[in-house]
What does this fold into?
Amino acid sequence: MKDFSLSTALRYIFPSLVAYSYLYMCDATLAKQIFDTLGILGTISLVFLGSVIYLLYRPIFDTFIQRLQDKFRHNSDNYRTYLKKRYSHYNISSREAQLLYMMIRDKYLKDNYSQMMRETASGIHLLYLAGIIAVPFFIWQLMGSHFAVPLFFLLITLIICFVGGFFLHKS
It folds into this structure.
């Protein structure tokens, strides 16, 4: 608990708030009914759900989103692609390059890794997370043939979150 901070709390609470917001937007009656029925247990469950969503998100990011970022890097290298090329004789993966960079950063570049860079990285993760959470709600709305405001909002959310996260991450 020593390293627990507001950003750590937000990391685990944000997904549940986003999911509940999407649920409320898609079916306000169901969202209200869930909280009326569960009471305080609903709040605790919501926080627990946020933690589970975040823990599931990290492997998705590490496995798919990072690889897409590296693949679409045509004109310049990011730290992962640079390290993968530099140490190509070891055939390191994107994940291993990420870990190598973090070890180097934490030992030698700590002064250069500014608060602003940390906040930008956190913001990018929140964008991707909000986009990933929107996917099942978008599918739910498509399957229900509710071509209305919630469906349009979720589509716009998906586009903004994924495209925004991708271009912010690319810079």
